[in-house]
Each structure stands twice: as C-alpha cells, then as structure tokens.
Amino acid sequence: MQNAIIRVTDLCKSYNTGKKQTEILHSLSFEVNQGESLAITGPSGSGKTTLLGLLAGLDNLSTGSIEIEGEHLEKLTEDQRSALRLQKMGFVFQNFQLLPNLTAWENVMVPLELMGTKSPQKAAKQLLDDVGLGDRLNNYPTQLSGGEQQRVALARAFAHQPSILFADEPTGNLDGDTSEVVEKLLFDLNKQNGTTLVIVTHDQGLAAKTDRILALKNGRIEA
Questions:
Q1: What is the mean pLDDT of the chain?
Q2: Domain extents for the chain?
Q3: Residue 159, burial from CB neighbour count under 10 angstroms (0-12, 13-18, 19+)
Q4: CATH class, range 4-221
Q5: pTM of this structure
Q6: Angle at 27 between CA 199 and CA 167, to 5 degrees
Q7: Share of the chain above pLDDT 90, in %
C-alpha cells in the first residue's frame, strides 16, 4: 500500500521469565492506510494490548519491524519515540487517564502547551465545545461522569491533530447509551481530522463500525 501510515513486518514479541521464554506475538505483518480505521480484537491474552503498546513505541519489539510514516520505531531512541508520540499520536484509554489535579480545560491544554501552540486556552475551549463540554471547563475529573471524562480525553487526544489515534477499550467503562455517544464522537472527530484510528476492543459492535478488523488469537493474526 503506497499510502500506508503504519507498516508492520514479521513482528515478534517475547518475554524472558526466568529460564523460560514466553512468546506473546508471532510473525505479524499488516499495514494500515492513512485515514483508515482498524479494530484489533481477540480474547483476553491474545496480545491485543501488547501490540498496541508496540505500535505506539511504548515497548520494544523482539524481532521484525514497525514503521510509522516511514520511521522505523526499532531504530529510534526512547527520546526520539517520545517526540514521535507527541508529534503524531493521540491516545484514549479505558480509564480515561486524566490528570486529577487539573480541570477539564487544563487537561486539554497540556498537549497544546507541550507543542508550543499559540493561545492554548482558546484552542482547548474550542475542543471542549466540540465534544459538548463547553460548560464544564473548570470541573475536575472527579466532578465529571465517566462519559464526560472520556469526552475530555477525546478532546485532549485530538488537541495536537495527531496522524494516528490509538484507543484502548475506549468504551469499556461506559454504559450502553454513553458508549454510543462516545463512539459517535470518536468516529466523527476521526473523520473530520482525517486521522488514522486503531482501536483495541472486546466490543464487536464497536469493531464492526471500523473499516477493517484484525483478529488475534494466541498472538497470531486469525483474520
């Protein structure tokens, strides 16, 4: 694929536990196009979260290659991977990962300030308006519902206009109705920004809304 933004080739990941080597991922190869949405599914222990961490440069692969917009993650230093995450990646987690001592507004400002964005306060307010929380700017995470916290997390994830958004069970802690609201926002923001979306999920309904599903079983691509 000429416009692949993610290219994985013969990826393997193993851990040494004492004298035993445990294989987590086995010879994975796939590509994800720019603007495409991909769901990574599979039973617990299939390697979904491990794969997501490797794609985000949060862990080191054992053998093989991961390219993000032509950059080989395995050849980068930790500082270089951190810079790549800041410039090109956004993250949404099951447990929201908001900073508890910062307001919703301040949480969204964090990546904008790190990027040196002009008028981060104005940009953060607009992002919170976009997710329907313009009236909750000064609320702390503990003063927000789970769905509201995830909407703040979405605003923060898209704040620096990442090329790729990684979402790890983004609706896992939400009830059905709230999940639908967050899912709609996730795909709407993804489409508006032209972002590549990679979601790890057990939710087959959410997975079915993506362009493509990569199913893992025992660390191998099943479908």
A1: 92
A2: 4-221
A3: buried
A4: alpha beta
A5: 0.91
A6: 10
A7: 80
